[in-house]
C-alpha cells in the first residue's frame, strides 16, 4: 500500500482537561499517514486519482480551529474519521503531540491507527 504522509503538521486548538489549558489555543504537532487504495496517480499524474494532502491539511486545520476537546484521544479519533470518511482512505495513522505541557516531558500524545492496510 502506498502511504501519503505529513510530518510535524502544526495546528492550534483548544484541548485539555484543565481550566488553564482551555483559555487559549495551544500548538499541536501531527504526523499523518494516509493509506491509498491504489497507485493509479503514479501512472496518470492526475491529482483526481489520489488524495490531495493539501486539502486534507486545510480541512483538519479548519476543524481543529473550530472545535475544543478535553482529550487527545478525541481529537485524534475525529481526525482519523475525517481522513477515512471524507477522503476515502482505507487506512490512517494519526500521531498527535502536545508540546512541553508537562514538567520533564518534551512531548506527549497519542497514536491512533484505523482501517486496514491493503
Ligand atoms: N489519556 C489522556 N490523559 C491525559 C490527557 C489526555 O488528553 N489523554 N490530558 C491531560 C491534560 O490535559 C494534560 O495535557 C495537561 O497536564 C492529562 N492526562
UniProtKB/TrEMBL annotation:
Ranges where the Dihydroneopterin aldolase/epimerase domain occurs: 4-114
Gene3D superfamilies (UniProt xref): 3.30.1130.10
This protein's record includes keyword Isomerase: yes
Pfam family, one: FolB
Reactions catalysed, as given in the entry: 7,8-dihydroneopterin = 6-hydroxymethyl-7,8-dihydropterin + glycolaldehyde; 7,8-dihydroneopterin = 7,8-dihydromonapterin
Keywords: Folate biosynthesis, Isomerase, Lyase
Any single biological process term in GO: tetrahydrofolate biosynthetic process
Keyword Lyase in annotation: yes
Pathway of action: Cofactor biosynthesis; tetrahydrofolate biosynthesis; 2-amino-4-hydroxy-6-hydroxymethyl-7,8-dihydropteridine diphosphate from 7,8-dihydroneopterin triphosphate: step 3/4
Gene Ontology CC annotation, any one: cytoplasm
One Gene Ontology MF term: dihydroneopterin aldolase activity
EC number(s) on file: 4.1.2.25
Enzyme class of the recorded protein, top EC level: lyase
Family designation: Belongs to the DHNA family.
Task of the protein: Catalyzes the conversion of 7,8-dihydroneopterin to 6-hydroxymethyl-7,8-dihydropterin.
Record PANTHER family: DIHYDRONEOPTERIN ALDOLASE 1-RELATED
Protein name according to UniProt: 7,8-dihydroneopterin aldolase
Gene behind the chain: folB
